[in-house]
Amino acid sequence: MNELELKYGCNPNQKPSRIFMENGKDLPITVLNGKPGYINFMDAFNGWQLVRELKKATGLPAATSFKHVSPAGAAVGLPLSDTLKKIYWVDDLGELSPLACAYARARGADRMSSYGDFVALSDKCDVCTAKMLQREVSDGIIAPGYDDEALAILKSKKKGNYAVIRIDENYVPEQIERKQVFGITFEQGRNELKIDEEFFGNIVTENKDLPDSAKIDLAIAMITLKYTQSNSVAYACGGQAIGIGAGQQSRIHCTRLAGTKADNWWLRQSPKVMNLQFVDNIRRPDRDNAIDNYIGEDYMDVIADGAWENIFKTKPEIFTSEEKRAWLNTLNGVSLGSDAFFPFGDNIERAHRSGVKYVAEPGGSIRDDHVIETCNKYGIVMAFTGIRLFHH
Predict the structure, then answer these.
(1) Residue 345's Cα: distance from chain center in Å?
(2) pLDDT of amino acid 304
(3) What average pLDDT score do residues 47-72 get?
(4) What is the pTM of this model?
(5) CATH for 3-167?
(6) What is the pLDDT of residues 358-374, one digit of tens each?
(7) Average of pLDDT values for 186-204?
(8) Residue ranges of the domains in the chain?
């Protein structure tokens, strides 16, 4: 089959819609359940490329949580601490497979953005990962295969309408890719750039101590950016992206947006948040929203109108700005990747506030010396990759 008709395109008024192979070859995918749409397939194919490259770069199972053609999270299958299991709401699932750990990390880093995601897995979906997905609000999944029981679990989601796609892991696309905008065809060579440890060899700062763990995190950040709508910046720590700033016109706004997400990820692990007592039978998205409000600026409004009684068993203490800053000051060893050069040192100043110790960016700004100087001020290690990673 070299063509699949879709219900509509990006919006319901955009008809007809289909995906097809121009060269007459068969599509490299099989829809096992549901009816994936235009945006679903955009997320699926970008997500699959991301996890395939993460697996090649690290040797570990990888997962990503995609929304609107950019990743909300991406990770590899490192074991989870008890704290991470709790903040990702998987502490009741027992022993987790490496693939399930990867998805828990990818979904859990930014649960607000991951709500209603499209999932991509580098490996065959196992039962453990399927059970985790079963209770999340998600639109679909793409993977190279599925265990029989895992497939049965996924088919039961969304009243039997959950989109399940199997992709041929041996599929290799043509080297030239095309797309149309306003009836005009654009053509370019595929971005086949390989990102591995050698990618970070040109260290330009005084501190040149780049441990292997940081190389993995930088690879995660940069591969994630390779499939994120530009401009984009990604923070990574402990085998996962913890903050992604996508599609901003200004580099500093990317850094601020991603940094805020990274801060929220760390604040969720603070004692005040870990000790919150929720009412029984509260929905998982409601817990996520409540935590987001609690660590944000809206909690005073929640207290004022008494809404906390519908969420918490007891009235939580205020999480003051001073307490939040003190907790954020304990975050360290974070890696930061940028898809293009930092034009000013203000990006490094903002990154430092979120515990960034390692940076990778292309370099090439007329103010590179100022950016390097700012890194040196904080003892940050920075590598120039020499290669931009725009994605549109």
Answers:
(1) 25
(2) 55
(3) 96
(4) 0.95
(5) 3.40.140.20
(6) 999 999 999 989 999 99
(7) 92
(8) 3-167, 176-267+328-384, 271-318
For the annotated catalytic residues, the residue numbers are 67-68, 231, 392
- Tell me the pairing of strands 381-384 and 356-361: parallel
Which CATH architecture is the domain 176-267+328-384 placed in?
3-Layer(aba) Sandwich (3.40)
Beta bridge partners of 63: 75, 121
pLDDT at residue 316, rounded to an integer: 87
Distance of alpha carbon 295 from the chain centroid: 21
- Per-residue 3-state assignment (H helix, E strand, C coil) for the chain: CCEEEECCCCCCCCCCEEEECCCCCCCCEEEEECCCCHHHHHHHHHHHHHHHHHHHHHCCCEEEEEECCEEEEEEECCCCCHHHHHHCCCCCCCCCCHHHHHHHHHHHCCHHHHCCEEEEECCCECHHHHHHHHCCCEEEEEECCECHHHHHHHHCHHHHCCEEEEECCCCCCCCEEEEEECCEEEEEECCCCCCCHHHHCCECCCCCCCCHHHHHHHHHHHHHHHCCCCCEEEEECCCEEEEEEECCCCHHHHHHHHHHHHHHHHHCCCHHHHCCCECCCCCHHHHHHHHHHHHCCCHHHHHHCCHHHHCECCCCCCCCHHHHHHHHCCCCCEEEEECCCCCCCHHHHHHHCCCEEEEEECCCCCCHHHHHHHHHHHCCEEEECCCCCCCC
Region of 310 (left: φ > 0; alpha: ψ -120 to 50; beta: rest) is alpha
When pLDDT is cut at 50, 70 and 90, the band that residue 10 belongs to is very high
